[in-house]
Amino acid sequence: MRFVVLIRTLGMAVVIAAHAAEREQKAALLDGVAAWVDGKPITVGEVYRDGEREFTRLAARREMGREEMRREQERLFRAILEDKISQELVLAFFRRQSAETGVSIPEQAVDRQAEDFIRKRFGGDRRAFLEALGQARMTFDEWRETIRRQLIVEQIRAQELTGKVRISPEAIRRYYEENQSEFEHPGQILLRRIILVGPDAESRSNELMDRLYRKEADFSALAREYSWGPEADQGGLWGWRDPEDLAEPLAQKLARAPEGGIVRVELGGEWHLVRLEARDRIGLDAARSMIEARLRREEIERLARQWIESLKEQFHVQYVEVSFGKE
Q: Are the C-beta atoms of residues 189 and 243 closer than 8 Å to each other?
């Protein structure tokens, strides 16, 4: 499940408006309902907005034919819709719990989270933030509500899932021994990255490099908090890469970096911070945190699937057929 604060600098319609998706937009009206959860609607537009980056990347794939594009759009739409349904089920669970116990999210916590987001993403520039909200066709109150919902979901997940998962040292060792091929890659390098975008990306990259140099922050934590890369939720773990497949400016810097070193480079208007985790292979001690994170994630996902299915039995879920313009 994805639980993210939704604020984008592109308008919601750009998700579908790009080239091959234009006619699909006419078939899937943005204000139409895609599903009902506990009496509350999830609109088609909300699904597209949540998956804006994914839909934009998909629309840019020129090699795909019209029918293949339509199938991929539908597959992506269904996956994001399930995420939205899961989120709404968690919120329904919270509403019931709140009615029974009086538990709530303090408004001060919402305000702190909102201010923290503006500071980190916009350097505290409230005018730039409000301009971005306008471009995203959201009011401040609507955006603040997404913050409140996110806090609720995080609190309930910690209560019902993440707080109950424990990964033993034995499980980590066993995974390492049974999956040696994952940790031995001759000629390749293991990387983590943070991708920063926007007009202040360069200054933020300098700020984060300073924090990392002074050991004030962990690279993985910063990736989860700041990166716009698809692997941000995994602490920026980019995986094993062949240096020859990397952009030349990045490959050159990494060739001179020691293991554990971090390089900073501009690529295509984005600023990248890349950490070199290992060359050729990684031992158990170095791999321990990555294995633990993976096993925790897999166990949480397993428990979450079971929990969401149980919530579907407690709260009414109704799907609405959405057309994707098949001709």
A: yes
- Which residues of the chain fall below pLDDT 70? 1-30, 324-327
Query: d(Cα 87, Cα 85) in Å, to the nearest integer?
Result: 5
pLDDT at 164: 86
Rg of the chain over Cα atoms, rounded to whole angstroms, equals 21
The span from the CA of 16 to the CA of 120, in Å, is 29
Query: Which distant-in-sequence residues (6+ apart) come within 8 Å of 285 by Cβ?
Result: none
Task: Kindly report each contact of residues 116-120 with a partner whose C-beta sits within 8 Å and lies 24 or more positions away, as own/partner.
Answer: 117/5, 117/7, 117/147, 120/225, 120/226
Determine the topology of domain 185-282 in CATH: Chitinase A; domain 3 (3.10.50)
Q: Where in the chain is the domain with CATH 3.10.50.40?
A: 185-282
Query: pLDDT value at position 172?
Result: 97
Closest CA to 289 of 158, 163, 183, 172: 172
What is the predicted pLDDT for the residue at 29?
54
Q: What residues have CB less than 8 Å from 49, skipping those under 6 apart?
A: 6, 8, 12, 15, 136
Integer Cα distance of 129 and 109 in angstroms: 19
Helix (H, G, I), strand (E, B) or coil at 211: helix
Just give the CATH number of 14-164+309-319. 1.10.4030
Domain with CATH 1.10.4030 in the chain: 14-164+309-319
Residue tagged 């790009």 (tokens): 18
The DSSP secondary structure of 265-281, one letter per residue, reads EEETTEEEEEEEEEEEE
User: Which tokens hold the place of 237?
Assistant: 């773990």
- Report which DSSP code applies to 37: E
How far is it, in rounded angstroms, from Cα 109 to Cα 287? 36
pLDDT at 321: 86
